[in-house]
Amino acid sequence: MPALEAPSSSSNPAADEELEVVFGRQLLQGPTEEETTPLPQVLVQVRESIMEATSSAKAAFRREWATLESERHRLSYWHTRLEAQTKAEASHAAEARSKLKREEAFALEVVGFTAHRSELETRFAAQQSELETRSQGLEVWKQELDNLSATLPGWREQLQERASKLAVAEAELEEDRKSLDKRESLTANMEKLLGRQRDSLKKLKESVEKRKSHQLR
After folding, report:
1. DSSP code string of 99-153
2. Main-chain phi, psi angles of 21, to 5 degrees
3. Per-residue pLDDT tens over the stretch 47-94
4. Against a cut of 0.70, is the pTM above it?
5. Angle in degrees, CA 12, 15, 20, rounded to 5
6. What are the backbone angles phi and psi of residue 19, rounded to the nearest 5°?
């Protein structure tokens, strides 16, 4: 760094106080007392200023670093919370998806159960209608059976009467059969007697014819 030249003591104060115009612009007055400070003192002041600036910069850097650390901790805290929240949301979403799948499966089961129930109700209605038809038929048959049951005593009496008449008829038939047997026996005896008589007549006729033939000789 080039050394600064100290102002000369032989300068003319009056000339320093005069204003000079350069390119239409007034110049400042001559060097002040501060500008006439010796270089070592200036360097000391500069060094002190640098040290103060460095100290201020370090303090500012520490404050900034502390602020950044605080921000980092805050961001780390929020990052941890965000990760936890994200995991919680992911878990909640997975649980919601699982629940949704279960609900969809349950809905499908409900739909299948509803369809099966509708089919069963249709079958039940058809079977119930068939049973009602059969019940009506059974009622008709029951009525007919009741009517038949009501007529059974009369039929029983008729059957008993017919059985009694049949027994009488069988007895009469037995008497007729016995009488017929007697008649057949009598007829057989008469036929035997007539056979004997025919034989006797035949023999008699033969004897008569023999006699006639003897007489003709």
Report:
1. HHHHHHHHHHHHHHHHHHHHHHHHHHHHHHHHHHHHHHHHHHHHHHHHHHHHHHH
2. -115, 120
3. 888 888 888 888 888 888 888 888 888 888 888 988 898 988 888 888
4. no
5. 150
6. -90, 135
